[in-house]
Specification:
Keywords: Antiport, Cell membrane, Ion transport, Membrane, Transmembrane, Transmembrane helix, Transport. It is a multi-pass membrane protein. InterPro entries: MATE_fam, MATE_MdtK, MdtK-like. GO terms for molecular function: antiporter activity; xenobiotic transmembrane transporter activity. Helix content is 84%, strand content 0%. It is mainly alpha-helical and 448 residues long. Helix 1 packs antiparallel against helix 11 and helix 10 packs across helix 14.
Length: 448
């Protein structure tokens, strides 16, 4: 095994999960900070209307990117499973099938995104004064979907085999490039929202090329060989079986959040801009916590493949503890330092006041999502993705839509809108944990 790989089936789990997750956290944090830089440049140099326009696209951007992230989760699980089992043939077929599946999905999302941008934004009741800029930003941004699909594929493979540092290096380089291009396109070229979107897709293609080159040049058993690029029917089915429900879950999740965005849009433009600024904290916290969900899937996958029952269970419990802890720490920090955080995106005091409504409630809610998301990752690592998706649809999607049309419709206040996150995460987490306990017992009985 190469020196830069980690055998996740041996050694102290607490220490190894932390060491494994730190580069992932930094990688996710860098990605969030680079995305925040987009918003900051727009807010500081293009004005509140442009900030509101870009913020109005957040749900739709996350909907498409979330699908690709979910798909890569299936790739991660299978790669970790076959890598842990030392099944070289299945590992190679999985990686080459996954590369093609990812590229096809990226191109498909590009076509759908560009074609449906205006319709989707109109359906979200985006304010008329924000619509033109929002459509322009979204159409350019969606041109980067194939690159994002390839990067997520490569990141999933490297994470599954225990190397979380290489994707971090590539993301860091492309992220710095993104910031430089942001400043150039917006300040020098005065391209407004188009400049921010263009900077994003250029950096995405750079990161995709870098990670693809690394896989092509690699000499290990998970290397990518152009001559082997074909879809193995059985393994492609397994990738889609695990990845598609997770991807669709993210899409449906964001579809439900679109109703939240509609609720926000029912207030004035200042509240929309404040929500846009404050919602940057969501990605900051979620993506750092997500490092431990990836760790959970990778550690459980390799140990399940190696037949190590106790490490399978402990991988879940330790990952859950870490993700809850970091979510609580970051959430409380945002409540305490909310206004300095919001000042990164706007100089308007009224917009900051509006943003604090969201930060105050969400700051104490983020940690609850760990019980839901970490358990979903654990169930996926054991080969179960469809039922967790159904639970999320009911608990965190259908419930949210019902909340918007009942509780929020009755009170019609911003706090009554944001509180739905805490309640929906709690309900979904309980159901996910009960399901996971049953599946875990079944799977461990098969290893006996």
């Amino acid at each position: 095994m190469k020196q830069n790989m980690q055998d996740l089936t041996e050694g102290s789990l607490g220490k190894k999960i932390l060491i494994f997750s730190v580069p992932l956290m930094l990688s996710n944090l860098l990605q969030v900070l680079f995305n925040m830089a987009d918003i900051a440049v727009i807010g500081q140099f293009a004005g509140s209307l442009s900030l509101g326009a870009v913020g109005s696209t957040a749900t739709l951007v996350t909907m498409f990117t979330g699908f690709l992230i979910g798909l890569s989760g299936g790739i991660n699980v299978l790669t970790a499973l076959y890598y842990g089992a030392k099944d070289k043939d299945s590992l190679s077929k999985t990686i080459h099938s996954a590369a093609l599946v990812s590229l096809i999905m990226g191109v498909l999302l590009l076509v759908l995104g560009v074609g449906l941008s205006e319709w989707m934004l109109t359906a979200l009741k985006t304010k008329e004064e924000l619509l033109d800029k929002a459509v322009l930003y979204l159409r350019i941004y969606y041109m980067g979907m194939p690159a994002l699909a390839i990067y997520n594929f490569g990141n999933a493979v490297y994470s599954a085999v225990g190397n979380t540092k290489k994707p971090l290096y590539y993301l860091g380089f492309s992220g710095v490039l993104n910031i430089i291009l942001n400043l150039f396109f917006v300040i020098v070229c005065r391209m407004d929202v188009a400049g921010v979107a263009l900077a994003s897709i250029i950096s995405q293609y750079v990161s995709a090329v870098l990670i693809l080159q690394a896989l092509l040049r690699n000499k290990d058993i998970y290397a990518l060989h152009p001559g082997k690029l074909r879809m193995d029917r059985e393994l492609t089915r397994d990738i889609l079986k695990l990845g598609m429900p997770s991807g669709l879950q993210n899409v449906i999740f964001q579809f439900a959040n679109s109703f939240v965005q509609m609720g926000v849009n029912s207030f004035d433009a200042t509240m929309v801009a404040g929500n846009s600024a404050a919602s940057n904290a969501d990605a900051l916290v979620y993506d750092v916590m997500a490092a431990f969900y990836t760790a959970c899937g990778s550690f459980m996958g390799q140990n399940y493949g190696a037949g190590k029952k106790k490490r399978v269970r402990n991988s879940y419990l330790i990952s859950l503890t870490y993700s809850f802890g970091i979510g609580l720490l970051l959430g409380v920090s945002l409540v305490v330092f909310g206004r300095p955080f919001l000042s990164l995106f706007t100089r308007d005091a009224a917009v900051m006041d509006a943003g604090m409504y969201r930060l105050t409630i969400m700051g104490f809610s983020y940690c609850i999502s760990a019980f839901m998301d970490c358990t979903i990752a654990a169930a996926r690592a054991l080969g179960k993705s469809i039922v967790p998706m159904f639970i999320v649809i009911m608990g965190s999607c259908v419930f949210r839509v019902i909340w918007v049309y009942t509780v929020f419709a009755y009170f019609h206040t911003i706090p009554s809108l944001y509180l739905l996150y805490m309640f929906s995460w709690s309900i979904t987490a309980v159901a996910e944990i009960l399901y996971f306990i049953r599946i875990y017992r079944q799977k461990m009985a098969l290893l006996s």
